[in-house]
Design a protein that fits this description.
Helix 3 crosses helix 4 and helix 5 (153-165) runs parallel beside helix 6. The chain folds into 2 domains: 24-151 and 290-361, 3-Layer(aba) Sandwich (Rossmann fold); 154-283 and 364-397, Rossmann fold (3-Layer(aba) Sandwich), CATH 3.40.50. A hairpin with a 6-residue loop joins strand 12 and strand 13. It is built from 13 helices and 15 strands. Helix content is 41%, strand content 20%. The two termini are 44 Å apart.
Length: 409
């Protein structure tokens, strides 16, 4: 009887051990739902390659022992097409999705994931948001199943306007942004923050233009010059920023640009060397960070002859693998519970996936466009130019409050 009891205990213990590490060797599918066609296709192509490259790197070694498989799905920058691709991903057994280009798309995906998870217990999906920065997603529209790895618009504007506050040469600002939720939020928060920190600064003009449709920004540059603006604040990305700075250079505008996405495909080449010292970027990463990010950037460039600039994808793999190891499972319900409030060391320092709203708390940098040198050697798009850090904001500084009333499952 004693042997029998011991045998049962041993068997249960071994079974528990097997279950505890059931995720080791599993393949985890992540569906990337972003544009591979239209004007923003170059951005989408770069980010899909980034996700695939990082999956290969983490497949070599990660604390959870899992393997990642990436499915690239073209959403044509359309919310409706994104929902079609979400269904396609689910039909292929995907339980994790990522997206980031266009907050209008992200909003549609958040709603769809919420409804799916509520109606299909046991088949839950997690949305890993790499770049969609509308603050509402971690405030009024917050969701337990949505995790944001970029810094939201309010966090970036908080850091950017704190930097501008100490720039006496900035006196007249023009706000030029894309006409959708992200661009509208940039305008809103820029006005609020400047009014509080530098009430002497004049907003001398503002425009909202269609997303990914404008091919000639010369008329906008003419308006900016006519307004007397010494600086432009823009959340534009992709072709909308590359063509804007190209028009500025061709039109002889010599003011400053305070941007979110200078490092994104096409913009470094458009800037060239004529914009040295006049273009600033606010971001959670930059080209010259060193450490593991330098390793990934060098490997990506060697393989693709392109720049790895969506560093949030590194954080996605870091948090996912650590959460899967802690949960001892790849089940989205268990993994979400582990990610909820998790603190970890990331490529840019201490990070925390805040419990209140699932907004990643992290360091933010202000960088300036300048010639690459010995201290900051990375050459963006092989231009001989780089983004060099001029100001660092620790997580407790860049953090902004949330109104999220998260509905727990």
């Amino acid at each position: 009887m004693r042997f029998g009891k011991f045998g049962w205990l041993l068997a249960l213990g071994l079974l528990g051990s097997v279950n505890a590490w059931a995720q080791k060797g599993e393949t985890v599918k992540i569906a990337w739902i972003d544009p591979l066609s239209g004007l923003m296709a170059p951005v989408g192509s770069n980010q899909l390659k980034t996700l695939q490259y990082l999956a290969e790197e983490y497949n070599k070694n990660n604390v959870a022992g899992v393997k990642f498989e990436i499915l690239g799905l073209d959403n044509k920058l359309s919310p409706a097409e994104s929902l079609n691709q979400l269904k396609s991903a689910m039909d292929q057994g995907v339980r994790y999705i990522t997206q980031g280009n266009g907050s209008s798309v992200a909003g549609a995906l958040i709603d769809a994931v919420n409804k799916h998870n509520e109606r299909n217990p046991g088949k839950e999906i997690i949305f890993l948001n790499h770049s969609a920065v509308d603050p509402d997603f971690t405030n009024s529209k917050c969701s337990y199943w949505h995790f944001r790895f970029d810094a939201d618009t309010s966090m970036k504007i908080e850091a950017l306007t704190t930097f501008i506050k100490d720039q006496p040469s900035v006196k007249k600002v023009y706000l030029l942004n894309q006409n959708y939720s992200h661009g509208q939020q940039v305008v809103k928060y820029a006005k609020e923050n400047l009014a509080r920190k530098r009430p002497d600064i004049q907003i001398v003009g503002e425009d909202l233009h269609p997303l990914a449709q404008v091919r000639d920004f010369a008329p906008y540059i003419a308006k900016i010059k006519a307004s007397g603006a010494d600086s432009v604040i823009t959340g534009n990305w992709g072709s909308d920023l590359a063509l804007l700075v190209k028009a500025a250079n061709e039109g002889g505008y010599t003011g400053k640009f305070f941007t979110y996405y200078t490092g994104v495909t096409g913009t470094p080449t458009a800037l060239g060397q004529t914009s040295e010292g006049r273009v600033f970027q606010v971001s959670y990463a930059h080209y010259n960070m060193g450490g593991v990010m330098a390793k990934y950037m060098a490997g990506f460039k060697a393989k693709n002859n392109d720049d790895l600039y969506t560093g949030s994808m590194v954080s996605i793999f870091d948090l996912l693998t650590q959460a899967m190891a802690q949960a001892k499972s790849t089940d989205p319900v268990k993994v979400a519970a582990a990610m909820h409030g998790m603190k970890f060391k990331g490529f840019n320092g201490d990070m925390e996936m805040r419990k209140l709203d699932h907004q990643l708390q992290q360091t933010i940098f202000i960088t300036v466009w300048q010639k690459a040198d010995k201290k900051y050697p990375y050459s963006a798009e092989n231009t001989g130019m780089t983004l060099a850090p001029v100001k660092t904001f620790e997580p407790y500084v860049s953090s902004t409050p949330t109104s999220c009333q998260m509905k727990m499952p």
